[in-house]
Amino acid sequence: MKKLLLSLFVFVFAFTMHAQITLPYVFSDHMVLQRNKPIPIWGTANSGETVTLDLNGFLVQTEADTDGEWKVYFPAMKAGGPYELRISNEDKNQAIVFKDVMIGDVWFASGQSNMEWQVQQSDGAKAEIPNALNKKIRLCQIPHAVSLDPLYNTEETQWEVCDSSSVRGFSAVAYYFAKNIQADINVPVGIIQSTWGGTPVEAWTSKEMLKSNEFGRKLVKKNDTITYFHFQKDTLDLNTFWDIVYNPKNGMDSIASDPNYDDSEWQLVSIPGVIKDWEADFYEGMIWLRKTIDLKKPYAGKDLTINLGHPEMNYSLYFNGKEICKNQWNANLKHLYTIPSSLVKKGENVLAIRIAALWGGGGLNGPGDEIYLTNGKTKLSLEGNWKYKKDLEDKIPKVQYYQTYAYYIHNAMVHPLQPYGLKGFIWYQGEHNEGEAYRYREMLPLMINDWRIQWQQGNLPFALVQLPNYMKVDDEPTDGKWAVLRESQALTLKLPNTYMTCIIDCGIADNIHPTNKTVVGERLANVVAKNVYGKKLVASGPVFKDYSVRGNKIHIAFSNLADGLKVKDEGAIKGFAIAGEDQKFYWADAVIEGDEVVVSSKQVSHPVAVRYAWGNNPVCNLINSEELPAIPFRTDDWKVITQPEY
Question: What are the φ/ψ torsions at residue 531 (nearest 5 degrees)?
Fold first, then answer.
């Protein structure tokens, strides 16, 4: 009898659980639903179950199909709220109620690390975060996930009202975009952030769309050997990998940071320095650094400030055995920390740093004058020899970075969100595709078309951020992967309803993550305000229109002049290079003549081609009267770096 009752209980419980109405996580309290178009809502229930939905006085019903799936469309509604969305089954014994639902504009923000870069990591965060409350802005952040097959749902998430708590870890570019757009249109704005640093465009594109492209088919074929067994094992290894990075093992946080620890057999490394200057050309794992410093009276017993310069993104700092900070993914960009006076003694003190050496990096990087201790009056340099030791902790496993595999992110972080009602997409990505910079001109349009087709809402607006200036400045005109990729991004504008923001003046030579995201978000919002919302403003800098060769000079015509061409900070125009038939480029002298720029060079008597801001980190200063930078371009079609032999 007990077994029979237990079996009946299990059956009833299983049936009840199966019969429960569920919706994807993207539906929650505080969500924004897209205005002025039919509103899709979908979920699961028991097969054949009647599901009733009520929103803003509109009642709709549907029946779950044989797979237990259902979908409805509410009629288009004007902006407004807050409302309740109520979903119930036919017996009225289950009801899901989502509260504080707004009708407005929803933007899908995606890309890699520069779109993922958080508000708290960006310039002006201390002033911005405390004042971020705006109930008409709602934020939904999709957790990282990958999958071999398209998923029905994302990892667990929810919508949040924009405030000082929710905005802190949200995309800075997307937040500043939303802030400016919401102020312009004065309706609720929702941002769905689906981002992942270090990922290529093909990871965000569906398998079906990739198979329609010759290069895409090659990428898909690479995944054919991956089985569920390999995938699950690699997922476990990845969890172990990050557990070791984030959590000290073997008690080393206490042992290796102890001032009395014997480090006499540790090796020496010169700081500033990186891992490739050490024992091996490539190493992944946890490294401990130690330095003994002799502090005299001006420092002993005082609160001190330490500057670590530019360390790797994941590290912990200890002073005389006490943890001073635990930094993950550069949460503190300035790497300045206070060492309390209670820890600072006269004589020998020990600094210890636990640092994750990942992807060929590791160490404290320069410039060296940014690595020091200070009492507020004088500085004590920490440059020079430090001791270091590898493999004091568990070795991190070799892992597969499935987020870089074609279509795997799409399956888990894009597909489950379709067809949630959207106003459009904003996109900041391309860095990871520099090795295929030329092919990006076919791969990005492939993804854009893929998303528009999958969402089934027409040619939804797509606004992208062109890559900024980055890396070493070249002394002479040269080719560059980032130059080619910017051109590929610009060529994407041939697609309808596609727009671009130029930030060629916002980069940092030695930092792939420029921290001034305010400007990026504002410019992106202006491009959208003009092209999507019809606001009358100048949203772009000068755009190359045409050119003509007249003798030994080239005359270049531009559009988007506003009230005319200008030179930033005055002085000579920089960034133009010209070449003759020999295809050798020389820096050009350039002058503004009305609405044209006229370029020439004494070294090129018969010029045939001109390039502007062509390089990884070009020095360029042509702007329009609205202080917006001219967009990089070239007039030639000569072969460039990464261009394949078709």
Answer: -90, -25
Instruction: Give the rounded distance of the alpha carbon of 331 from its chain centre.
Output: 15
Q: Where are the alpha helices (DSSP H) in 129-227?
A: 172-185, 207-210, 214-221
Q: Is the peptide bond before 311 cis (omega within 30 degrees of 0)?
A: no
pLDDT of residue 236: 86
CA 220 – CA 204 distance, rounded (Å):
13
pLDDT in tens, 156-213: 999 999 999 999 999 999 999 999 999 999 999 999 999 999 999 999 999 999 999 9
Residue 631 DSSP code: P
pLDDT higher for 370 or 602? 602
Rounded to 5°, angle at Cα 466 from 465 and 469: 125
Assign a CATH topology to domain 252-390: Jelly Rolls (2.60.120)
Residue 313's Cβ-side half-sphere holds a number of Cα atoms within 13 Å equal to 16
Q: What is the DSSP letter of 22?
A: B
CA atoms within 13 A on the CB side of 278: 28
Euclidean distance between CA atoms 475 and 599, whole angstroms: 19
Average of pLDDT values for 438-455?
Answer: 98
Stretch (H or E) spanning 540: none
* Beta partners for residue 365, in sequence order: 310
Per the prediction, the chain carries an average pLDDT of: 92
User: Are 205 and 453 contacting, i.e. CB atoms less than 8 angstroms apart?
Assistant: no
Q: Which of 461, 394, 452, 375 is nearest to 419 (CA)?
A: 452
For 332, residues 6+ apart whose C-beta sits below 8 A from its C-beta are 325
Look at the block and give the residue holding tokens 């078309």.
449
Amino acid identity, position 342: S
Q: Which element (helix H / strand E) includes 404?
A: none
**Three-class DSSP category at 545:** strand
Asked whether the beta carbons of 451 and 414 are under 8 A apart, the reply is yes
Residue 332: per-residue pLDDT: 56
Predicted local confidence at residue 271, as pLDDT: 85
Q: Residue 281's pLDDT is what?
A: 53
Round to the nearest angstrom and report the end-to-end CA distance of the chain.
Answer: 75
- Tell me the pTM: 0.87
Which pair of structure tokens corresponds to residue 161? 């009202």
Cα(188)–Cα(159) distance, integer angstroms: 13
Please give the order of strands across the beta sheet that includes 336-339.
Answer: 336-339, 304-308, 371-374, 379-381
DSSP reduced 3-state for 403: helix
**3-state per-residue secondary structure call for 407-473:** CHHHHHHHHHHCCCCCCEEEEECCHHHHHHCCCHHHHHHHHHHHHHHHHCCCCCCEEEECCCCCCCC
- Across the chain, which distance is largest between two alpha carbons, in Å? 103
Mean pLDDT computed over 496-523: 95
- Separation of alpha carbons 172 and 168, rounded Å: 9
Listed residue (112, 96, 109) closest to 140, CA to CA: 109
- Strands 315-319 and 322-327, by their bridges, are antiparallel
* Residues ≥6 apart with Cβ < 8 Å to 542: 558, 559, 560, 561, 565, 622, 623, 624, 628, 630, 631
What is the phi/psi pair of residue 484, to 5°? -65, -40
